[in-house]
Amino acid sequence: MSQNPNPFLRGYWNLKVVRTLSISHEDGSPHVWRNIHPSQQHLCDAALVSSPCIVTSDFAVVRTGTEPVGAALIAECDAAEGGSGEGMVGAVVYAIHGDDFDGRPVHIGDTYSAEAAREVVQRLSFETGYYSRCWEISSAHISQETGQYLANLADLATPEAFLFVAFRVPYSPAIGVKLISTPWTDQHLQDVEGI
After folding, report:
1. Which of the ends of the chain has fewer CB neighbours closer than 10 A, N or C?
2. Where does the DUF5983 domain lie (predicted)?
3. How far apart are CA 142 and CA 145, in angstroms?
């Protein structure tokens, strides 16, 4: 969870999809998830599932019937930190990773197809439409002068050129602010407002 006090920050940053393998072991130890070795990225999902593999602490090398694993690749597995072991690929998993507001990496979720993962990334990136957000502003977030300015705007009709509308929250001294056309990125504002 982010420790950033800015109430306007939302979502995740630097979203990416990582194709991983869910691997089981014969001894019944817990499943592990590993990246596919770069030399095998071209293999389709169907060729990977139910295949034996060599598992290292960083990646997995699948032993398919069509392509034998070369001596150099086996040596790379043996040289990997923590050594290597054997496993069986149970599924190809498309992991969705990103950064939270503080820049820390976050595992967001998993899907079982590249298409589903891309759709999740698109939705989390707010690239599916135009959004408006509503926030309650407290004195902890703004100066007294800014609070008075928003209160004055809430009592008047907010100018149309503003990308927000200030309003009073019923039965409360709080001021609400509706943000229009969020997220306020350069590209999005250009697309929506021509700014």
Report:
1. N
2. 134-187
3. 8
